[in-house]
Amino acid sequence: MAINENGKRLREEPPAVEPTSFPKNKIKVLLLEGVSAKGIGLLKADGFQVEALKTALSEDELIEKIKDLHILGIRSKTQVTRKVLEANTRLLAVACFCIGTDQVDWRFAQEKGIPVFNAPFANTRSVAELIIGNIIGLSRRIGECTAAMHRGAWFKQAIGCFEIRGKTLGIVGYGHIGSQVSVLAEAMGMKVITCDAVPKFGMGNAVQCTMPEVLAQSDFVSLHVPNLPSTKNMFGKAEFAQMKKGSFFLNASRGNVVVIPDLADALKAGHLRGAYVDVFPLEPGKNGENLFESELRGCPNVLMTPHVGGSTEEAQEKIGEEVAGALLKCVNEGSTHGAVNFPEVDIKPDASIKTHRVLCIHKNVPGVMSAINNVFTEAKANICQQFLNTKGETGYVVIDLNQEASTEVKKRLKDLPSVLRVRVLY
Q1: CB proximity list for 326: less than 8 A, separation 6 or greater
Q2: Which of 248, 309, 319, 325 is 20 to 30 A from 262 (CA-CA)?
Q3: Which pLDDT belongs to residue 15?
Q4: Nearest Cα to 361, choosing from 408, 424, 423, 420?
Q5: pLDDT grade, residue 39 (50/70/90)?
């Protein structure tokens, strides 16, 4: 007991509480493939140790780099395989600074208690605008004109060039991007018809049809479907044959949904008037000359881009901000809101109560919550707030409890056979 010079007892102040269970300047973050400066800045500003590279890494390179990481951030080229994830025992999260998560073995990540985040909405406008621009480019034969002029040729003509106003656009896959394309196309005076695996009410005057109706009636067919077993090679010889003669085909969704040789045959035969493709079944893992091979090279009136649908400065800044924000909430609060493979839990700490936050990831098996609650009882924990959720075979519970009990609770939880991981935030 502390006594002042007048013999009066001094009030003892409680010890300072650390903001996290692990020093932020020791949390190692690796960001690959040129993540936007906005995202990098947010993570650095919070005190994390951030390394940012412009390139992707091979599996072997990533296995070596990931060993002591806490957070891994990638875009679309880097493959986060089971072998990569097995090489790390402390990874808190994987972040995809893009829409897709196909490049991550997120099912195995879930088994290891690692949430995977992405940005499903941030670049929808960029992709939609690119589709509209290429619809115009195809209808006006911009690619052929540009190539000819680069050769020094001058061929001014109107034959084979059309306005898009009054033409019919068929959208296959009416999700976030497909619906954005729909709105922009209608504003340009196009008629829009759609089909989707899940019936959806169309934006504006868009009309839902069957797939055969879309293929038979559309002047332009644009794909906006996810990467699923059911969508692999969904467009091949039979589908191109059903399309209206002289129509155009566009794909900026996933590379493996189209049989590229069949598309090339339809173009060379003159059944299709042109095509735009941004994604391919096999894509180079790095930038450079003489890396890209495709049956579409040399086909008439074909526009191609190297998987740049969401690659605008605005989209990348939004993605960087959105994904970095999700990572900060995950590390600092235990939030998994927005994770594609994980139970979503988001509970705000109560600043008015001095507690420790316990994060417990467990197998979703019968009796597990009873065992966890027994731990709280045995450790004499006073629970202030609690939130739990499950997804598939994984469960996640966040508990705010009295500070005195957190060490014992963590120790006892880690001893439970059904518990995968435990963290404590101070």
Answers
A1: 95, 117, 335, 337, 338, 339
A2: 309
A3: 43
A4: 420
A5: very high
* DSSP structure string for 32-83: -S---HHHHHHHHHTT-EEEE-SS---HHHHHHHHTT-SEEEE-SS--B-HH
DSSP 394: E
- Average pLDDT for 224-252: 96
Query: Considering only the top CATH level, what class is 1-122+312-341?
Result: alpha beta
In this structure, what token pair is assigned to residue 207?
């009309």
For residue 231, give the 3-state DSSP assignment.
helix
- Reading the block at residue 234, the tokens are 């969904």
Query: Do residues 184 and 132 touch, judged by C-beta distance below 8 A?
Result: yes
pLDDT tens sequence across 66-121: 999 999 999 988 999 999 999 999 999 999 999 889 899 999 999 999 999 999 98
Residue ranges covered by each domain of the chain? 1-122+312-341, 124-304, 343-426
Distances 142 to 219, 257, 267 between C-alpha atoms, Å: 17, 26, 17
The reply to whether the predicted model has a pTM over 0.85 is no
Residue 16's pLDDT band (cuts 50, 70, 90): very low
Q: Give percent above pLDDT 90 in the chain.
A: 88
Model pLDDT, residue 14? 43
Catalytic residues: 254, 283, 307
What count of other Cβ atoms lies within 10 Å of the Cβ of residue 234? 18
Domains 1-122+312-341 and 124-304 share a fold: yes
DSSP H/E element including 414: helix 406-414
CATH class entry, domain 343-426: alpha beta
CA angle 74, 77, 83 (to 5 degrees): 75
Kindly state the percentage of the chain with pLDDT values over 70.
95
